[in-house]
Every structure is written in C-alpha cells, then in structure tokens.
C-alpha cells in the first residue's frame, strides 16, 4: 500500500525497532516502573509520576510535579496519568521516525539517555553510546552523532574518556533540535520564495 494513503497509526506499524534497541528499551522500562512502591496495584506495571520524579532526582534534577505530569501527558494516549508499555513503545517509534522535529521528546530524551547508561550510574561515555548509535544511524553517520552528544573532543585533557550527565545531554540535544528546526524553516522560506518567483514570472 502506498505510504501516502496510510494513517499515522498504520505508518507507526511500519516502524521497526532493532533487537538491540528493544532489549535496551525493555531494560529501561523495567527500571523506570520500579521506583514508586506506593503506586496503585493496577498501575504497578506502568511508569507513573512518582517513578519519573525519583529517576530525574537520581540524575541530578529537581523536577516539579507539574513538569513530570507534562512529560507523562505528552505520551499518555489513554489519559490515565501513567505510561503503559504500549504507550512507551509508541512514543519511541514516533520519535525515531519523526522527520518534522515536532514530536514531543521529553520522555524520549530521558529513555534514550538511560538506554546508553546500561548500569544506571547517571553518566554516559562515548563507548557506551556506540552500540545504539551504530544500530540506528549506521557507520556513515556515527561520528556526527557522537559529536552532537559529546562535542568534537571525545576525551578529556588528561586522556580519560569524556562522560556527560543527563542535564548536559539534554542541553546538547535541545540545541541541536533548535538548529535543525531553524534550518528547516530557512529551507521552507527559500521554497516559498522560489514558488513566488515562478508564479510571478
């Protein structure tokens, strides 16, 4: 079937998650659902506000309850105040297939960082990101993706491997997203100018 005729939900079904990505996604989901022991029984297998608060605090942030509720609301399709495994998977597929830069990414950025941070220590190194980045972007784009996260220098001045925190990671990712959005807007304006030139010819 022509992809142009598919609905957004049908298109999502065509998005494939590689086995290594799914393994990391499952590990992170299990980690994030296990933080708030006071959750109602019916929501024990979901990510709730209490879980997110504890994870973000561990990563060095001081989130407001309203901020955490917004993170959940962005992906909470059934509006029960929690993120189910299905909503979690859908969120990931939406973000990795998004070509517009408009998909909400607050939860995605957190999940992505934790996918890199295999031992949940709160910091990630270049080496820890290589597997996921290679699987998703391929060898030809690997270096540019590493630079986007860690900068030009992959090691510290003393030769040790550079590590970044979640806060530093989000800052770099957001700056990159803003730059890409500005480039898309610039390209769109150029396209509009070109069309105007043709119509006025």
Automatic annotation (TrEMBL):
Q: Where is this region: Disordered?
A: 181-201
**InterPro entries tied to this protein:** EF-hand-dom_pair, EF_hand_dom
Q: Which Gene3D superfamilies match?
A: EF-hand (1.10.238.10)
Question: Where is the EF-hand domain positioned along the sequence?
Answer: 46-95
List the GO molecular function terms: calcium ion binding
Which SUPFAM superfamilies has this protein been placed in? EF-hand
Which top-level group of life is the source organism from? Eukaryota
Protein name, as recorded: EF-hand domain-containing protein
What organism is the protein native to?
Strombidium inclinatum
């Amino acid at each position: 079937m022509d992809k142009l005729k598919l609905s957004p939900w049908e298109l999502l079904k065509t998005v494939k998650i590689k086995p290594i990505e799914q393994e990391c996604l499952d590990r992170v989901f299990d980690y994030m659902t296990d933080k708030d022991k006071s959750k109602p029984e019916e929501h024990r297998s979901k990510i709730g506000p209490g879980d997110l608060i504890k994870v973000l605090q561990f990563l060095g942030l001081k989130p407001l309850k309203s901020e955490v509720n917004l993170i959940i609301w962005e992906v909470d399709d059934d509006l029960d105040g929690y993120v189910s495994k299905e909503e979690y998977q859908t969120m990931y597929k939406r973000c990795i297939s998004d070509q517009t830069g408009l998909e909400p990414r607050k939860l995605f950025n957190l999940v992505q960082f934790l996918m890199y941070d295999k031992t949940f220590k709160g910091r990630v190194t270049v080496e820890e990101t290589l597997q996921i980045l290679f699987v998703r972007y391929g060898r030809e784009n690997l270096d540019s993706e590493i630079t986007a996260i860690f900068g030009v220098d992959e090691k510290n001045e003393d030769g040790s491997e550079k590590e970044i925190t979640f806060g530093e990671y989000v800052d770099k990712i957001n700056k990159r997203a803003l730059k890409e959005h500005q480039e898309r807007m610039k390209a769109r304006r150029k396209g509009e100018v070109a069309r105007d030139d043709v119509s006025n010819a």
